[in-house]
Amino acid sequence: MNSSFRPWSATITARLTRSRGVDTTEIIEYAHEGFTRRLVGACGPLEHRPEPLDEQARRDLLEDLRGELDALPVDVDRDDLEAFTRILAASLALTPAG
Q: Could you tell me the superkingdom of the organism this chain comes from (predicted)?
């Protein structure tokens, strides 16, 4: 092995967003620590720290995402939503289809 070898390191992150009213955005993020949820207002965060999603919250979100994939809104990227759904399903040890 070459003494100058530098291994790659991988980090997978994902973000899901939706409007929760005129001035509020809900953000679900995935990183090594798991899934978190936070609300952001027009003037900044509405909560001090992201809230971890427990298993039931992840199951509920997965059900919502599957429903959205069945009736995809015009401005939503199917590939990105499917990728997030796969990551979420894997966190629950499920296949993306259920």
A: Bacteria
The whole-angstrom separation of Cα 35 and Cα 51 is: 9
pLDDT at 96 (0 to 100): 53
Residue 85's Cβ-count burial label (10 Å; 0-12, 13-18, 19+) is: buried
The pTM of this model reads 0.80
Beta strands in 1-98 (DSSP E): 14-19, 24-31, 34-41, 44-45, 51-52
Contact 4, 20 (CB under 8 A): no
Nearest in space to 16 (alpha carbons), one of 56, 54, 64, 55: 64
Q: Say how many Å lie between the first and final Cα of the chain, rounded.
A: 44
